[in-house]
Amino acid sequence: MENVDVLVIGSGFGGAVMACRLAEKGRKVVVLERGRRWLPSDYPSVSQKNWFWDEAEPEKQNGWVDFRNFGDMSIAMGAGVGGGSLIYANVSIEAKPEAFDHGWPQAINYSTLKPYYDITGVMLNVQTLPASQWTPRTHLMKEAADAVGAGDRFTVLPQAITFDPDWRAENDDSFDYRHSKMWVNAQGKQQGTCTHCGNCDLGCPVKAKNTLDLNYLAAAESAGAQIRPLHHVRTIRPLASGGFEVRAMDLDARGWRVFKANKVIVAAGSLGSTELLLRCRDQYKTLPKLSRKLGHNWSSNGDFATAAFYDDRQISPTRGPTITSAIDYLDGSDNGARYFVEDGGLPDILGSWLERLGKQPRFSSTRLGAAMLKYGDSSNPFGKMMPWFGQAMDEPGGTFSLGRRWYWPWKREHLKLRWDYRKAEKAVQGLADRHLALTAATGGSPMAPVTWSWFKNLVTPHPLGGCNMADSVEQGVVNHAGEVFNYPDLYVIDGAMVPRALGLNPSRTIAALAEYCAAQMD
After folding, report:
1. Which residues partner with 238 through β-bridges?
2. What sign has the CA pseudo-torsion 267, 224, 2, 54?
3. CA dihedral defined by 98, 104, 109, 110, rounded to 10 degrees?
4. In Å, what is the CA distance from 87 to each residue of 43, 168, 222, 369?
5. Using an 8 Å Cβ cutoff, are 351 and 381 in contact?
6. What is the β-pairing status of strands 231-238 and 65-69?
7. pLDDT at 44
8. CA-CA distance, 497 to 512, in Å (whole number)?
9. Which neighbouring-strand residues pair with 392?
């Protein structure tokens, strides 16, 4: 059994911040991350392999994206050192002050979090897309906002990306990686500048994307923290002598590792943290006093996308940062529906694959190889498509629990989600209708997803809740500092503790909450 002061489970926006700040306080910190430590040469966009994570057999398949389907709702998550920062679209924006008006512990409000929002902005090197680098999607968003009389609602979004002010899309071969300028960040890590290659969600090959492994986790390691990739935590058990025993499967060695920790920070994400604690309470019975609110009050954060097509203009969604701008309707002025319209980009998976093949020795000196490289560099699939995207402030309508499949009753209990689409319908439908209005105002032809209009099915990369913050154990799972009710020194610090939808990208708020919680710990 290995003894540590603080064991952090997960390395996303909650876990990375906690590991950094507690290591800086002199604690012996170990971070257990279920996924790999990814290098740019290993990214799926480069290697064309290891795309998916399989929770049923993670020792055999531990790739980039963990995609879970729960019937009417599907959830996409990152797996690796850096957590959700590996696959998110870089948007690093503060929640609106009104988002804290209700549903939170009394100690939490916008004013309380503002200093920590500022700290995260510095740590993540947050910038905005230079005006000289607006993408066709950015220009279309501004045109659409003006066309519907909402020009004052348009904004270019803050992003955790490093831009080169001298880069221009019209320059020769401008999207090639060689145009990225190398620099060394405040944590001593070498990075590059953005070349608008469009691969944000599949791993930035030039390290212009300020993922957590390049800042918070780098600072944590410099302060003495250890990060253990491919360690999948299965149980947490309080010890009579104090502290906790944590058992994890080493997916690489395929053996068990046991840790004793004075403090445990559960930071495995909204789904991961909720599932782990549900198993500890209801399956393994190691944490029986967890709140009965565990698994409740889960929100999809209203994610929704609509594809639109334009006959007379090039949108080129595979170029540029995945998201660049927004049209803000979070004030409820649209018949009470609150939402945040964004543009959406798509990675050029085919182009990346052909570039990789063209550079291989067997093709590099052939005409075929030259053709592959030429297409890979200039490909523009879906060139006339605009992916309208966004989030909506839906009501929490999801509840997680454990159960057995009737056809496999002898297998271990699986995670179930009961989701009531009616809790999301007003907000999401408002966003969907706005997509149609913006498309019509700019001369496009929308393709509204029938998965929503017919079946009320959604996909979210921004799940929130399940281990909600509250002022009492009757209301939630953790207190204002993230400490689990009835279990001192056990914490949940990630999206699982956010008690309501934010209606916009939540990563900055999760990181700010983690900074706040770290500041409360002695």
Report:
1. 244
2. positive
3. -50
4. 11, 25, 24, 30
5. yes
6. unpaired
7. 86
8. 13
9. 339
